[in-house]
Design brief:
This protein is 20% helix and 24% strand. The longest helix has 18 residues. The chain contains 15 helices and 36 strands. Strands 8, 9, 10, 11, 12, 13 and 24 form a 7-stranded mixed β-sheet that branches. It has 688 residues and is of the alpha/beta class. The chain has 5 domains: 102 residues, 2Fe-2S iron-sulphur cluster binding domain, sarcosine oxidase, alpha subunit, N-terminal domain (Ubiquitin-like (UB roll)); 182 residues, FAD/NAD(P)-binding domain (3-Layer(bba) Sandwich); 129 residues, FAD/NAD(P)-binding domain, CATH 3.50.50; 133 residues, no CATH class; 60 residues.
Length: 688
């Protein structure tokens, strides 16, 4: 079986070889130690895990984060989410084809009361917000219990190979997300008053204020004086013909496979959504050696940071704004993506279709907070607060800072005198804010031997360039201001090395005494095969348009550059200010568009395979209650409990002209996550 594993990455260290033997549908395979079943299957070239009993629809992954149930398999006879369960030696994994028979189990389990735990503070979520809150509380001696459903702390930080934006002093700006995650986890684990439970899932909050937690050693009921919900966000879905094909899944799932598990998850990738998640996902794919065919964004401009869009355009990735995915085609998995331009009502314009070959389509159309337990706590009148994406979806730098603030506020409420600087709340608001004004790029007005060419033209919260300059030659009025170079550059390249947006390069005018050539120093974060040393490259400008040709003459690679290389590219002197990068991929080629299939009715509920027409029929019949709709058409009745399809259902109500304030919301009840019945009666539960 083909092993699709990444063995060399420009940023990430290698992982152990696959040595854990298991089987899938009787076929012997190998996984890396501790690897999740889903990742091991992908690495073995198996993206289809089974077929749905209702209509035979192929099943794969969608979130790879435990929030949906697309990846369900039977592992040693137990139905499990394959993205959340590690492979064990000798494990027998089989597809959930139809209704597979479960093994006989005659074991008599004791029925008793679960173990109960009390703690002053319970933090749900071990991502950036939860960890930073725990650090603030632990530093002042308050006992804290942090629980997280992953084996490793850090949340989405464990997937982020890029440098962070924001404030150097307040949220580690300029440092790679993976390194921030390790730093925060180490700090938490060193605090004696902070206890951490990993692979522990909060499955519900009950009317008596107790939180049910499923742990590897049994079920617990946790009572806390104060509860902080920092459970992050889940990916939103989008419906279009073919949206349920394996190979179509969330950008976060892709980052999990590629950046956490080093699995070569795709050959030809397409992306739907031009926010930061989609733009960063494209960059991460290129770093892993995966071709990015293109990206579409429904709005006239990408909603993510301009520097993120610019850097992938410079590398050769086309971005189509005011476009969407019209449909996806494939037999048992994705093979082609058809895009189309849209009008002011977001409807595809006939005749504008383009079709591309792709085996993977990432859905990056936004995130929704994981807040079911938060809402219940507020409903019950408990002492609860939120931080990070559970409070408001924003960048990870904002989550870091909101966790710090939440931790100190909790400490105050518990009687500990701690200060909260007056500028923290305003800074938190800035870090959560959308990009500000974009100005026209001004060419440097310089005649010096060497100087920085700064292409940061959009107001975003970021200051590593000004903080890094040893001569303080780059100034900013505020953290949202644009950097301004004052002159006097020494040519050290630190601003080029630290800029999270790769938006700064150095221009060396004294390279050629004849005045015919100049040297441009460019940041580069790819493997050797993308660096044609002493070879000619196609140089690109600010917007990814061709400038001309350049020649890579040297590479500077030092430990203090944090895995970023500085490439010395020789260019014609008159092009020195225009060159911002060079292409690493050729133009994307279209293929013939497949005629529309007879059934263009997209799947809305992946778990129950409920189509859009089934929901429309009930709405037109007068249904205005999500609970009633569940009973009649079965959306949200599957394993994910509506986490994936609820937003799509609400969108259909709006499309049918029904205002959401006239629709009764569905009822969230424990359990908010699937849990095996045997978990409630583990060996070390307290029996009554």
């Amino acid at each position: 079986m083909n092993q699709l594993r990444i063995h060399a990455h420009p940023i990430l260290s290698s992982l152990p070889d696959a040595s854990v033997e298991f089987t899938f549908n009787g076929q012997p395979l190998k996984a890396r130690p501790g690897e999740m079943i889903a990742s091991a299957l992908f690495a073995s070239g198996i993206p289809v895990f089974g077929h749905h009993h209702k209509d035979g629809g192929a099943q794969g992954i969608f979130c790879a984060n435990g929030q949906c149930s697309q990846c369900t398999v039977l592992a040693d006879g137990r139905p499990v989410k394959s993205c959340m369960v590690p492979v064990e030696t000798g494990m027998q994994v089989v597809s959930c084809e139809g209704h597979p028979p479960l093994p006989e189990d005659n074991q008599v389990l004791p029925l008793g009361r679960p173990a109960e735990v009390t703690t002053p503070v319970l933090i749900l979520g071990g991502g950036p917000a939860g960890l930073c809150a725990a650090i603030e509380l632990g530093r002042v001696g308050i006992e804290v219990l942090v629980i997280d459903d992953k084996p490793e702390l850090g949340g989405k930080l464990t997937l982020q190979t890029h440098g962070f934006f924001g404030s150097v002093a307040d949220c580690y700006a300029g440092t790679r997300g993976i390194d921030i995650g390790h730093r925060l986890a180490a700090e938490v684990e060193a605090l004696p008053t902070v206890t951490v439970w990993t692979q522990a899932c909060a499955v519900g909050l009950f009317f008596d204020g107790k939180v049910g937690v499923a742990t590897p050693t049994g079920y617990r009921l946790v009572t806390a004086e104060a509860l902080l919900v920092a459970m992050g966000a889940r990916e939103k879905a989008l419906s279009f013909p073919g949206c349920d094909l394996p190979g179509i899944y969330g950008a976060g799932a892709f980052q999990t496979l590629v950046n956490r598990d080093l699995v070569y998850a795709s050959k030809k990738l397409f992306i739907l959504g031009g926010g930061n998640v989609g733009l960063i996902g494209a960059y991460h794919a290129l770093q892993a050696g995966i071709d990015v065919v293109g990206l579409v964004e429904a709005l006239p401009e990408c909603g993510g940071y301009k520097v993120h869009a610019d850097k992938i355009k410079r590398l050769g990735v086309p971005i189509w704004t005011s476009h969407t995915v019209a449909k996806a085609d494939g037999a048992d998995r994705l093979e082609r993506v058809t895009i189309a331009q849209i009008d002011e009502t977001f409807s595809p314009i006939p005749g504008t279709e383009q079709t591309f070959e792709a085996d993977t389509l990432l859905i990056a159309v936004g995130l929704a907070p994981v807040d079911e337990i938060l809402k219940k706590a507020r409903q019950y009148g408990l002492k609860v607060s939120a931080a990070g994406d559970s409070e408001e979806v924003a960048e990870a730098s904002a989550a870091i800072f909101s966790g710090r603030i939440a931790g100190r506020k909790l400490a105050r409420e518990m009687g500990v005198a701690v200060s909260i600087p007056s500028d923290w709340e305003p800074l938190a608001a800035v870090l959560r804010s959308r990009p500000g004004e974009t100005v026209e790029w001004q060419k440097p007005d310089e005649t010096a031997k060497v100087y920085p060419n700064i292409r940061c033209v959009q107001e975003i919260p970021c200051n590593p360039c000004s903080a890094s300059c040893p001569e303080q030659l780059i100034e900013m009025d505020t953290i949202m201001g644009l950097p301004y170079y004052k002159g006097g550059c020494l040519g050290c390249g630190k601003c080029v090395t630290v800029c999270p947006g790769l938006a700064i390069n150095l221009v060396c005018e004294d390279y050629d005494t004849r005045g015919e050539l100049a040297l441009v120093v460019l940041p580069f974060e790819f493997d050797d095969d993308k660096i044609p040393l002493n070879g000619v490259v196609e140089t690109t400008d600010f917007d990814g348009e061709t400038v001309g040709q350049g020649k890579v003459v040297a590479v500077r690679e030092r430990a203090d550059q944090d895995r970023r290389r500085l490439l010395m590219v020789e260019v014609p002197f008159e092009e020195r200010l225009e060159v911002a990068g060079f292409r690493i991929r050729g133009p994307s080629q279209t293929v013939d568009t497949v005629e529309p299939a007879a059934d263009e009715d997209p799947i809305i509920c992946r778990c129950e395979r409920v189509k859009q027409s089934e929901i429309v029929r009930e709405i037109r019949a007068g249904v205005r209650d999500i609970n009633q709709l569940k009973a009649l058409a079965r959306p949200s009745m599957g394993g994910c409990g509506g986490k994936t399809c609820t937003e799509l259902v609400k969108r259909i109500f709006r499309q049918e002209g029904v205002a959401l304030d006239g629709v009764t919301e569905g009822t969230d009840r424990p359990l908010v996550a699937e849990i095996a019945l045997g978990t409630f009666v583990s060996e070390d539960s307290e029996n009554g």
